[in-house]
């Protein structure tokens, strides 16, 4: 199946897109030949995939790589961004995007730098393990274990105030942050804020076609640039291929899935942290992200939800040209600074 997301913009979607994005995309991406994707090649290119639209980021006082404990006590790499002020600092923990099978510590480095300097917080970016080499939900398992480690050991290891923690991420990383909010509540980790962009929410393995989904955005944006239905299904298949085909190992892995495949099925939506959810109007995932926000509101939680007009799924990586991306970064940093500064 050919599902490369870098194609000429589909006429069904074109009228909905900001002309600034259309020009940027046409100049840099639309002429890329369509074809099957090689996972190894895509991993090498992923963190620079949208660099044609990424603006300069401020220099933090210090940036360094180290490790924390992930799932089952295994070492997980992290990158730490420190502001120029004197610690102990509040801390924002970031989980990068990449459809569970892509992404690394370079993927959201520009966003991490902006948050560090604009919000005056230490940012710790978690390089959780990927599918299909490791079974889903390894990204969630590693990330929550990392959050637990940062809360327990961060004051000593990172010079942070472990009572002033926020978490966030984009796409699959947004999903991880939303799940970790439930797990943190149950583990009595005092999260102040969850701030996510264009999160994945639903289990699309249930649907054969975009038209079968309950989400209008999937129907309208089936052929959206940068992330389309075919690519979503490719990522989803990669995720499920990570599960063993049979036997006790499969049983154990399926048991670990809990409600993570569709986070709308979480058993308890009460007493969750303040949550900010940003969606993109031209993203197939738009409506499920907004449905999740509504479920949080129904649970009695404080929620801020905003839809950015005219842009596709990974718009926040294009802050050189898109006002929507600049505003996404500014607002995210403002919410973190305000909430953790109390």
UniProtKB/TrEMBL annotation:
GO biological process, one term: antibiotic biosynthetic process
GO molecular-function terms, A-Z: hydrolase activity
InterPro entries per UniProt: AB_hydrolase_3, AB_hydrolase_fold, Carboxylest/Gibb_receptor
Ranges for domain Alpha/beta hydrolase fold-3: 93-316
Pfam families for the chain: Abhydrolase_3
Gene3D superfamilies: alpha/beta hydrolase
Name of the protein in its database record: Alpha/beta hydrolase fold-3 domain-containing protein
